[in-house]
């Protein structure tokens, strides 16, 4: 009896986000007949690819007790540099490499500020957000770069029926899942985010873990920059404004906890799709854009409240167990 | 190790700061010297005096505002008697207003304001006039300020030229989608109001099947268009308040033969829009000509500063760009380096 209860409560805790996703999916398919079409579903995945790739980077950082507010700006900078490289040399590979390199360099600066100089991640990456946007605008003089030619294949092309950005998304999702679940580095991320002092005491090189987390984030942001510019067929120095918040939203809805040490790749992916399905169904049914903003905000609030509530329950039940034991130990 | 790193880092920071100030430091020199010369300004009209002009842009990150700021800078080089400084209002009323106040304090001879939101800047432009400094408002003008000049294109007209053409182009009982600029933005609101009065009120048969705010952005417009294409079996026209968003909508359907004849309207006359019109994929746009605005702004400044006029209010044209006349605008943009 107790065992079955336990099973259900762990299942509910562990898989609740996927249940929400499935329920939402079913509801959406009844609300609008176009929702279930293959075209629409590939569209949603294509639309989500860029922000979800960012969200995986954020997930790793948040698990480790940090975050990156500069993701959107660095994305624009990487993308603009990549587009410029492509226009100069005509090489897609060089463009992708420059994009990724830009992302990594910006994130190295982030982590130097955070890990070496102990700046709070919120402030350090906020500074980078302004700087990177400034460089992108300065470099382009605020103008869009046009006529990209074959550069668009990365963002608009498909392999079979699967859009190329979605292929990247799948690869990044598997990569993140593997790192978090099956590597020492992944476990260190949880440890550092859960309790930094304890991690230091148990011999984890916290510096190295933080550097690695930001370097990986840099690679993902750079890649996302290339995909973004390729999808919109322009080098937009003003592009991807507030994308870091979309990415953070996906991570949080997916159960990543801002207090660190908690989060999964699958959860983030589910979080991103929950937001994506909602956005999509609201557009398909032509809901007023002001109302959309309210709904989006309300969902973030709900997700965070749920997160805190379920954590409280966990601590409470732990306390309960201790109390039980105390009761048991009481002399009869 | 850490200390050296800290040292290197702070040195770098100082270096960046100095480099950044270098350019403004140069500006600061004439600033102090002109305080002495500005007192005898009225007497020295026509002489070899250098006038200090401040150009306060709405936002350097808005691609049209940036284009205009660049054009103003280039145009100013043609006037040896004018020394121009450009400031960035960062799309923020509060910041822009304090920049206007600073410019008054620094005793510029003329201040050009590109308002973020006309009514928010109105009292500050009045302050300029009160301080005895020439004021010009542009893109969009703040009208009705005694003593202030203006150079502008009318956002209402820019949309209206498209809307009037659309009256006959958009088929009966058409389904259209509308892409709006940021809510509360003067240009966004005026252009939308114009489409309402010039088109939608006269064509009740036309149905809006989707309308969203895409914040002037191509990527946001793409997302909305992708969803609309799924939700509707046909879309006859895209009515966009600027060219960026129109281009985004077209990006979505570019390989789809079903939307080959879809009509697409924009405003601004960007390089991308002109190329799309040339390809026959976009229907029309209205040129908001930054070069012409810049030319008129500097000409007006010069006339005011040299005492040729006390107040000037002029408009630039609102030419409609269609497939028939797009070549001349592509030439113009090629000359400006916007198209290769």
Description:
The complex is a heterodimer of chains A (332) and B (340). Chain A has 332 residues and is an all-alpha fold. Chain A has one domain: ABC transporter involved in vitamin B12 uptake, BtuC. Chain A has 13 helices and two strands. The longest helix of chain A is centred in the last third of the chain and has 41 residues. The C terminus of chain A is likely disordered. Chain B is an alpha/beta fold and 340 residues long. Helix content of chain B is 49%, strand content 16%. Chain B is built from eleven helices and twelve strands. Chain B has a six-stranded parallel beta sheet with strand order 2-1-3-4-5-11, with helices on both faces. In chain B, strands 7-6-8-9 form a four-stranded parallel beta sheet, sandwiched between helices. The longest helix of chain B is centred in the first third of the chain and has 36 residues. Chain B starts with a helix and ends in a 5-residue tail after the last helix. Classes of the chains: A mainly alpha (332), B alpha/beta (340). Chains A and B meet through helix 2, helix 10 and helix 12 of A and helix 1, helix 2, strand 7, helix 7 and helix 8 of B.
Give me some keywords for this one.
heterodimer; A: 332 residues; mainly alpha; ABC transporter involved in vitamin B12 uptake, BtuC; two-stranded antiparallel ribbon; 13 helices; 2 strands; 78% helix; disordered C terminus; B: 340 residues; alpha/beta; Rossmann fold; 2 domains; 4-stranded parallel β-sheet; 16% strand; globular
Instruction: Tell me the greatest interface.
Output: A-B, 39 and 42 residues
Distance between the termini of chain A: 26 Å
Low-confidence stretches of chain B: 22-46
Shape of chain A: globular
Series of H and E elements of chain A: HHHHHHEEHHHHHHH
Provide a short characterization of the protein structure.
The complex is a heterodimer of chains A (332) and B (340). Chain A has a single domain (38-307), classed as ABC transporter involved in vitamin B12 uptake, BtuC (Orthogonal Bundle), CATH 1.10.3470.
């Amino acid at each position: 009896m107790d065992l079955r209860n336990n099973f259900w409560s762990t299942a509910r805790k562990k898989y609740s986000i996927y249940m929400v996703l499935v329920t939402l999916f079913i509801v959406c398919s009844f609300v609008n007949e176009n929702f279930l079409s293959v075209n629409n579903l590939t569209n949603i995945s294509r639309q989500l690819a860029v922000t979800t790739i960012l969200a995986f980077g954020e997930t790793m950082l948040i698990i480790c007790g940090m975050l990156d507010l500069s993701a959107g700006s660095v994305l624009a900078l990487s993308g603009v540099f990549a587009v410029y490289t492509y226009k100069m040399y005509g090489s897609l590979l060089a463009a992708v490499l420059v994009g990724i390199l830009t992302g990594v360099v910006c994130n190295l600066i982030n982590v130097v500020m955070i890990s070496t100089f102990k700046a709070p991640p919120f402030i350090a990456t906020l500074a980078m957000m302004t700087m990177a946007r400034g460089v992108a605008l300065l470099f382009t003089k605020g103008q869009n770069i046009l006529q990209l030619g074959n550069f668009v294949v990365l963002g608009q092309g498909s392999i079979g029926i699967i859009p190329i950005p979605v292929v990247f998304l799948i690869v990044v999702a598997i990569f993140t899942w593997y790192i978090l679940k099956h590597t020492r580095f992944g476990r260190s991320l949880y440890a550092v985010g859960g309790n930094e002092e304890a991690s230091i005491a148990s011999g984890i090189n916290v510096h190295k873990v933080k550097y690695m987390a930001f370097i990986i984030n840099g690679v993902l942001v750079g890649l996302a920059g290339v995909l973004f510019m390729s999808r919109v067929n322009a080098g937009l120095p003003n592009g991807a404004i507030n994308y870091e918040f979309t990415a953070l939203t996906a991570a949080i809805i997916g159960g990543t906890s801002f207090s660190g040490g908690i989060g999964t790749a699958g959860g983030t992916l589910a979080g991103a799709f929950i937001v994506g399905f909602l956005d999509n169904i609201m557009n398909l049914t032509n809901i007023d854009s002001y109302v959309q903003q309210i709904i989006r905000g309300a969902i973030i609030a709900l997700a965070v409240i749920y997160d805190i509530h379920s954590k409280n329950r966990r601590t409470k039940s732990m306390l309960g167990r201790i109390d039980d034991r105390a009761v048991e130990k009481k002399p009869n | 190790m850490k200390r050296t790193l800290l040292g290197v880092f702070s040195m770098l920071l100082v270096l960046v700061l100095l480099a950044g100030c270098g350019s403004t430091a140069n500006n600061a020199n004439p600033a102090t010297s002109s305080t002495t010369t500005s007192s005898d300004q009225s007497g020295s009209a026509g002489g070899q005096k250098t006038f200090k002009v401040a150009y306060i842009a709405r936002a350097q990150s808005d691609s049209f505002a940036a284009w205009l700021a660049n054009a103003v800078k280039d145009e100013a080089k043609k006037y040896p008697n004018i020394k121009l400084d450009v400031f960035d209002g960062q799309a923020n009323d509060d910041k822009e207003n304090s920049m206007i106040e600073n410019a008054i304090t620094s005793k510029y001879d003329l201040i050009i304001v590109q308002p973020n939101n006309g009514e928010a800047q109105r009292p500050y432009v009045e302050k300029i006039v009160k301080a005895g400094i020439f004021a010009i408002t542009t893109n969009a003008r703040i009208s009705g300020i005694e003593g202030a000049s203006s150079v502008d294109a009318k956002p209402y007209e820019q949309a209206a030229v498209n809307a009037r053409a659309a009256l006959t182009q958009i088929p009966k009982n058409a389904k259209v989608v509308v892409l709006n600029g940021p809510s509360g933005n003067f240009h966004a609101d005026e252009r939308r109001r114009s489409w309402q009065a010039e088109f939608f009120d006269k064509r009740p048969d036309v149905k809006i099947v989707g309308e969203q705010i895409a914040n002037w952005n191509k990527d946001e417009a793409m997302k909305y268009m992708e969803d609309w294409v799924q939700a509707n079996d046909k879309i006859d026209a895209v009515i966009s308040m600027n060219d960026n968003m129109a281009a985004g909508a077209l990006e979505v359907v570019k390989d789809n033969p079903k939307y080959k004849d879809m009509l697409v309207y924009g405003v601004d006359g960007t390089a991308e829009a002109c190329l799309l019109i040339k390809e026959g994929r976009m229907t029309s746009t209205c040129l908001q000509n930054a070069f012409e605005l810049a030319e008129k702004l500097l000409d007006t400044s010069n006339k005011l500063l040299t005492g040729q006029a006390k107040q000037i209010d002029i408009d630039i044209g609102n030419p409609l760009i269609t497939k028939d006349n797009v070549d001349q605008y592509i030439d113009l943009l090629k000359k400006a380096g916007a198209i290769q």
